[in-house]
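Work Package 3 (structural annotation) set out to generate three-dimensional models for the target panel prioritized at the project kickoff. During this period the team completed the workflow that converts sequence records into discrete structure tokens, so that structures can be stored uniformly alongside our sequence database. As a representative example, we reproduce one entry of 173 residues exactly as it appears in the project archive.
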Amino acid sequence: MRFVLLAGGIGAGKSSAAERTSVRLGIPVLRMRDALTHATGADSADRVEMQKRAAALDLETGGQWVVDYLAGLPKGERAIVDAVRTLREARALMDSFDSSLVYLDASEATRRRRYEEGRATDQMKAALPFDAAMAHPIEIEALRVRDVATVIIDTNSLDVDEVAEQIVEHLDE
């Protein structure tokens, strides 16, 4: 199975880009929130609990838990993973599957604005202000995933269709 691994900080546009790219390519989106809920039993609307359980699971397994989760899914040609949060996860996935790691980058001001806009419709974002969410080690680690990315896309001035187009172009290379 070939995976498009999306990574980036909170508010970089990962979920929106995953959805739009999924439609363009006709491939499914695999959500790490669902994987964490499956692996830990955590309430997917509780960001603090999800972060805590994800950090423990990631440390305990060296990121292998996400490989095990994806390996257990029905086989298909391609899928988008929304989103890789740690270097352990990124390395484990890249070592185990044919994959491209796409890092979506945006300034803190842009990410903060997008996060605040998303609080109206996303329970997880609504439960925690941007600064509190960003203070967690998992979110700090997510910014370092940039260092191992296959491609980096600056989303500051792009709309979601333009981001999806760049992802698709990268995959066609």
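The CA atoms of residues 26 and 79 lie 9 Å apart.
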